[in-house]
Amino acid sequence: MDWKHRIRDVCVNPWHTKWIAPLLVLGDAFLCALIIWKVPYTEIDWTTYMQQISLYLNGERDYTLIKGSTGPLVYPAAHVYSYTFLYHLTDEGRDIFFGQILFAVLYLITLVVVLACYRQSGAPPYLLPLLVLSKRLHSIFVLRLFNDGLAALAMWVAVLLFLNRKYTAAVAVWSTGVAVKMALLLLAPAIAVVLVLELSLLPSVRIGVVAGLIQVLLAMPFLLDNPAGYLSRAFELTRQFMFKWTVNWRFAGEELFLSKRFSLALLALHVCLLGAFVIIGWLRPSGVSVPRFLQNLLAGRHQPVSLSKPYVMTAMLSSLAIGLLCARSLHYQFFAYLAWASPFLLWRAGFHPVLVYIIWALQEWAWNTYPSTNLSSMVVVLSLSVQTFGVLANSARAFDTTRSKQSGKQHMQ
């Protein structure tokens, strides 16, 4: 085998992931250490988190009364418990350096889980360098200490458990992640489809009940004090977003951004895209039309389908991409969910590796442009559109249910 064929094989053969991945993790560990050493920490929400936790530890359980210097507590209960743990580990939040080390470890653990998901899904190794090169992603974890890092870990652990058909554990981890930040609700449509296809209706409902019970149990101390206050703050769906912070819709203009009709249009688009994915892609493994599938499901005649790992991961990440594309407003920390999903989605869309790298680079540039501009926000939306509609257009292959290992070689042709 000549050197050209060897390089090609390393780039496209998933077998090589088993030695490439550890090298990338090791290199990224050094990069995280270098960032902490050389790049100044940026205070945004950490102090506020610690102020809120101090109130919680002093006995406050009314969510409407838990506030910090930059605003009220607007995240669910698992966020409080997670940062309570960090509060104690970092000398009440004063030891920010140690906090950065903890978040670097969190980042690396999440990266390992992501790499495991990519390997199990048969992704070609040429995608893997993109998982460790994001400036914005490193910033979110080790320079900002946002709770999105914790939620991202929960998301990817849930994906890994779904890939290995540990459905109850997967939903439990996912629900816990939702209790850190409700952005993970964007995966709910695909989770429901995967469960119903694999398990049928009643087992899926039972697992759904588990997810709900986890939310109730985690929130119980706050629900007993002020249930309406907890629900309105932790899961506020009517929040008015500020135009100056938007990463994705700046090019639309402030008047349109703040309008009710724009919000309703995005909601309608979200519903339509989910419907399109259900009809064209997600229910493809059932082998029947949507009406027939629903009839069989409700009549108890649905035969469980064995889903491939690439299908499961594509379904879940496409659900995420749809939600982000149709989001009322994206802030920079939302990149914690998208950054590791994009290379996989671009691959499943069937794009040539060169095009994958170009789109990735454009997206990375857009998310690193601060403050956002008309051009950068347009690139954010276009890159999400390319991922979403690319997967939809390539649904015959993107939602293939073949369980055999994929070589990835066809993607270099």
Automatic annotation (TrEMBL):
It catalyses: an alpha-D-Man-(1->2)-alpha-D-Man-(1->2)-alpha-D-Man-(1->3)-[alpha-D-Man-(1->6)]-beta-D-Man-(1->4)-beta-D-GlcNAc-(1->4)-alpha-D-GlcNAc-diphospho-di-trans,poly-cis-dolichol + a di-trans,poly-cis-dolichyl beta-D-mannosyl phosphate = an alpha-D-Man-(1->2)-alpha-D-Man-(1->2)-alpha-D-Man-(1->3)-[alpha-D-Man-(1->3)-alpha-D-Man-(1->6)]-beta-D-Man-(1->4)-beta-D-GlcNAc-(1->4)-alpha-D-GlcNAc-diphospho-di-trans,poly-cis-dolichol + a di-trans,poly-cis-dolichyl phosphate + H(+). It is a multi-pass membrane protein. Keywords: Endoplasmic reticulum, Glycosyltransferase, Membrane, Transferase, Transmembrane, Transmembrane helix. Pfam families: ALG3 (PF05208). It comes from the Eukaryota. Its main location: endoplasmic reticulum. The keyword Transmembrane helix applies. The keyword Transferase applies. Pathway: Protein modification; protein glycosylation. Dol-P-Man:Man(5)GlcNAc(2)-PP-Dol alpha-1,3-mannosyltransferase that operates in the biosynthetic pathway of dolichol-linked oligosaccharides, the glycan precursors employed in protein asparagine (N)-glycosylation. The assembly of dolichol-linked oligosaccharides begins on the cytosolic side of the endoplasmic reticulum membrane and finishes in its lumen. The sequential addition of sugars to dolichol pyrophosphate produces dolichol-linked oligosaccharides containing fourteen sugars, including two GlcNAcs, nine mannoses and three glucoses. This is Dol-P-Man:Man(5)GlcNAc(2)-PP-Dol alpha-1,3-mannosyltransferase. It comes from Aspergillus heteromorphus CBS 117.55. The lineage of its organism: Eukaryota, Fungi, Dikarya, Ascomycota, Pezizomycotina.
